[in-house]
Design a protein that fits this description.
Blueprint lengths: L10 H16 L3 H8 L6 H9 L5 H20 L3
Helix pairs in contact: 1-2, 2-3
Length: 80
């Protein structure tokens, strides 16, 4: 609720919307980021502004890096 994400939005849809919004922002496409949030937010521009206002989250960044490293390690061990 604090970020403006609908409480009834499915977790998978929220995750996908946030990833897509992040990718759009990485590409310099703020309008695309807003559009990516539309399925999970009644006010996507407001949600994007709230996300922009978040302070640095070093523990979250460290946990994300650790998860990415583990995924890479597991992918390297796969023999599909």
């Amino acid at each position: 609720v604090a970020l403006g994400i609908r409480q009834d939005a499915p977790d998978e849809a929220v995750g996908r919307a946030l990833l897509d919004a992040g990718s759009a922002l990485d590409a310099g496409n703020r309008a695309g980021a807003t559009t990516a949030l539309e399925p999970v937010s009644p006010a996507p521009a407001s949600t994007l502004a709230r996300l922009d206002a978040l302070p640095p989250l070093p523990r979250t960044a460290a946990a994300t890096r650790q998860a990415q490293d583990e995924m890479r390690r597991l992918d390297g061990e796969s023999s599909f």
